[in-house]
Amino acid sequence: MAEIAVSVLDVEEENAVDYFYNIETAKIDFFHMDVMDGKFVERNNVELMKDYTLKIHNICMTPIDVHLMVENPRDYFDDFIDQGADRISFHIEACKDKEEVMSNIKYLVSNGVKASIAISPDTSIEMLYDFLPYIHMVLIMSVVPGKGGQKFIPGTDKKICELRKYCEDNDIDIDIEVDGGINNVTCRDAVSSGATILVAGNYILSSDNYSKAVSDLKEEYIEREGE
Ligand code: DX5
Ligand code: ZN
Questions:
Q1: How many angstroms does the Cα of residue 170 sit away from the middle of ligand 1?
Q2: Are 115 and 102 in contact (CB under 8 A)?
Q3: How many angstroms does the Cα of residue 169 sit away from the middle of ligand 1?
Q4: Residue 6: nearest ligand to its CA?
Q5: Ligand 2 centroid vs 130 CA: distance in angstroms?
Q6: Which of 8, 34, 87 has most ligand 1 atoms within 8 Å of its beta carbon, as the pocket-test mutant?
Q7: What is the CATH number of domain 3-226?
Q8: Ligand 1 atom closest to 181 (CA)
Q9: What are the pocket residues of ligand 1 if the criterion is a CB atom closer than 6 Å to any ligand atom?
Q10: How far apart are CA 13 and CA 5, in angstroms?
Q11: Spatial contact of 70 and 95, defined as CB atoms under 8 Å apart
């Protein structure tokens, strides 16, 4: 059964705290903070996501999973490390070379945070191979980074399978987080392909029963596993 990370990207500011309380009781596994700098992606919500992270860190117990859609990711690490982030994903496309990727990984790990590399839909899995032994998770984008409510890109499950197979063949045990367009249909392919964490924003935020929406995603696996 996969773990569920709820994206807070589209949570309205005026009732954010109520939402965080309510969603936490829905037995989620992570809050997923989508940090955007207005350069790597169009939107800029850095200050809002820092505020949300502070609030969640102060009032909730659920681990925080930070997704940096920013240029120069290193410039953002300390803000989220200080707010108790459990794991931080930075985009490989935002790094100029392998040295920068490795230095980012080392910095996160040396600060007690699980290091994760995010890849956009057009980036191939091979780009990750050199780094897999040093990271805790790979975040595979199943939508183009930048906004919630998009459709799961067909064929992403093949990419998940390819990564999972490479990890198994090379005895590498990492989380594979799939992010974007996850609902009670797309969750099946993602999990059967090897995903261990699913990020869901719209599917949960738009539901009138958060617990049911979260267990819908989880129960798909119980059904499937029991098939
Ligand atoms: C997109 C973000 C995703 C997105 C998920 O750039 O990284 O986390 O907000 O939202 P849904 O589940 O609505 O696609
Ligand atoms: Zn995300």
A1: 30
A2: no
A3: 30
A4: 1
A5: 23
A6: 34
A7: 3.20.20.70
A8: 14
A9: 7, 9, 32, 34, 67, 69, 143, 145-150, 179-182, 199-203
A10: 19
A11: no
pLDDT tens track, the chain, 227 positions: 899 999 999 999 999 999 999 999 999 999 999 999 999 999 999 999 999 999 999 999 999 999 999 999 999 999 999 999 999 999 999 999 999 999 999 999 999 999 999 999 999 999 999 999 999 999 999 999 999 999 999 999 999 999 999 999 999 999 999 999 999 999 999 999 999 999 999 999 999 999 999 999 987 544 445 54
- β-partners of residue 44 are 37
Active site residues: 34, 179
